[in-house]
Amino acid sequence: MDMIIATHNKHKVEEFSRILAPLGVTIRTAELTEAEETGTTFRENAYIKAKAACDETGLPCIADDSGLSVDALNGEPGVYSARYAEEGKRKKTVLEKLRSVPEEERGAHFTSAICCVFPNGDVLEAEGYCYGRIAHECRGTSGFGYDPIFICTEESCAGKTFGEATAAEKDAVSHRGKSLRLFAEKLENYLKN
Ligand code: ITT
């Protein structure tokens, strides 16, 4: 099945494509108006993006809203991950704020909320989480966003930052890997009915 992805983030397009392709979903991009993310949760923002794209194209559209929640910062940057500090200074801002925070209090997790809206109004949703801790400095150049400062403690890339992990190692345990695999299962059931 073909599906339009509602995102302006090319890294998400790459991750969606490589995770969903083996599950039988082909991701397509489209020139879309940027929807204003006025929600207070990842789930609300994912719906806002997918619904706006579906209204604009008349096709099934899928969106992800995601972010990094840091325990020692009361869950910040959370839904504001893409707007936290100036572009290029986001990782540094988190590292700076955690400068004197000890190892055992550097816990963090990523969340990915997926929402797919169909032209008939049907909605499919899925969420995924990935746990780890914040490094003391940037490590690795793979991935995007906060990847170089997020040490994943889950199996397959335990101890590496996502910046040091291969794409396959990240996808196996990442928030987006989990949310998209769950989404693909829900889509399969939806298409059967
Ligand atoms: P769209 O809204 O157009 O999809 P965006 O990048 O603005 O693109 P979000 O509003 O969902 O997307 O913000 C997510 C931000 O959280 C993203 O820009 C990164 O800074 C961070 N983030 C999410 N997933 C990540 C991942 O897998 N690795 C590193 N950082 C991630």
From TrEMBL:
CDD domains: HAM1. It is an enzyme of class 3 (hydrolase). Substrate binds at residues 7-12, 66, 144-147, 170, 175-176. Binds 1 Mg(2+) ion per subunit. Keywords: Hydrolase, Magnesium, Metal-binding, Nucleotide metabolism, Nucleotide-binding. SUPFAM superfamilies: ITPase-like. The active site is at residue 65. Homodimer. Pyrophosphatase that catalyzes the hydrolysis of nucleoside triphosphates to their monophosphate derivatives, with a high preference for the non-canonical purine nucleotides XTP (xanthosine triphosphate), dITP (deoxyinosine triphosphate) and ITP. Seems to function as a house-cleaning enzyme that removes non-canonical purine nucleotides from the nucleotide pool, thus preventing their incorporation into DNA/RNA and avoiding chromosomal lesions. PANTHER family: INOSINE TRIPHOSPHATE PYROPHOSPHATASE, INOSINE TRIPHOSPHATE PYROPHOSPHATASE/HAM1 PROTEIN. This is dITP/XTP pyrophosphatase. It comes from Anaeromassilibacillus senegalensis. The lineage of its organism: Bacteria, Bacillati, Bacillota, Clostridia, Eubacteriales.
